[in-house]
Amino acid sequence: MASRLSCAVSRTPALDNTLDPLDPLDPADLPSPASADRWEWLQRLRAGVFPLEPWLAAIEAGGVRPESDLMVVLAERLDAAATVRLLRWWLAQPLREPAFPQGIAGHRDPVVATALRQALGDHADTEVQAALLPLLGHQRQPLDFGLLQRRALEPAPRQQRCAALEGLGLGLSVWPLGPLRATLIQLAMDLDPGLAAAAVDGLARLPDARSGLLAVRSRALEPAVRERLERRLRSVPCRPLLLLVHGRAQGEIPAELRSLAAELQQRRGAPVLLRALTDPQPADLPTLEHPLGLVPLLLLPGEHVRHDLPRLRHELRPSSGLKVLPFLGSWPVWQRALAAELSRQVSDQPSPPARPALLLHHPIASPLGRRYLRLLAAITGATPQEAAYGSDRIEASLLAHQGAVLPLALAANRLTEALTPRFGEAAAPLLSRPALRQVLLEQLEALP
């Protein structure tokens, strides 16, 4: 293993098969690597019970070279203290065999992790960093994430950064998911194609892999890395989706929703179906190869969410593996997107509005609905106002409103059509607003 470490053994006797196999074998009798007897001698050593101390001392004194075949036998007997002892011996050598630590530090132990951490201090050279960073990740101690993250991201020799990324991969299951995903996304855009490709592979191994891979997809990437990314995306299973929408009379589905579903299907490479709650005779669902994901594109916790959705879920339960998501209005990312849209609308007005912005919604009377509207008001800074479709009173009060308005309607309906003559594009349905449509499309695309 270590061709330049110390001297050769002093004697190489032939193997005496008449010896008692239970007698301990002396390190001084170990045949040289060129000897035909070495393999059988090491097999006998491996099968026997022998004290470890003479072998550790022989290695430290230079009487035995730590060749890879010998270390395979000794590694099975190493405890944490012996591992640390050999690690310190290796660190003290003027010429180090890079693969040596990997052969001795395979088992996990807090004592070994501490020794690796100490050896990886700020003054460790690139050779030490490259050899030990993967082993530190293999120990799977959550507190080591920060060190591995820094070593992977900092401007340093490629050998060190790749070793740190390998360490992150070996301990993948114990690191904090959010920071880990952000680190791998950043590394996937690295100018080093090998490092970037390894980061893409790491993202593909995380839970909810699609969201991380899609976050990278929109960035500038090396051509080879982009090709690898697309392969990883194609290999991640993707559910067919059923988008549950309100719809118009007799189940008519507005063009905005049909366009969204078509683009989403193209992006996901899996079926995207639409069903309107107003459809009196919904078509039977086709037979699908994979379990279905039900996504209620409903904005308020009204009757449809509280009653129709559980009924539909019960009807579709025979569909094995049915996954039902919360209604769209409850998604924090969607709530923040509404706040940003209102903020843009307010900033576009020629002067500071005299009245707060209004969130216009259909009548909702349940306690749950009222609590939800208070939450939405706190997030957006707008005042919720009930707007019954076709009500002359509501329409008259809105005519005098001087602030921004945001109708809580994904697609065109009677409310948006009634408000358009007074407010123009400000009364457009939410999917007609590019920023909101993009947020929804990205969130739906990233679903497993």
Description of the molecule:
This protein has 448 residues and is an alpha/beta fold. The chain has helices at 38-47, 53-61, 68-75, 80-91, 100-104, 110-119, 126-139, 145-153, 158-170, 177-188, 193-204, 209-217, 223-235, 255-268, 303-316, 332-347, 367-380, 392-399, 414-423, 434-445, and strands at residues 241-245, 272-276, 293-296, 323-324, 358-361, 383-386, 405-407. Among the domains are: 241-279 and 290-329, no CATH class; 330-433, Rossmann fold, CATH 3.40.50. 50% of the residues lie in helices and 6% in strands. The strands form two sheets. The chain has a four-stranded parallel beta sheet, with helices on both faces. Strands 6-5-7 form a three-stranded parallel beta sheet, with helices on both faces. Helix 6 packs antiparallel against helix 7 (126-139), helix 9 (158-170) packs parallel to helix 11 and helix 10 runs parallel beside helix 12 (209-217). Mean pLDDT is 87; it is low at 1-19.
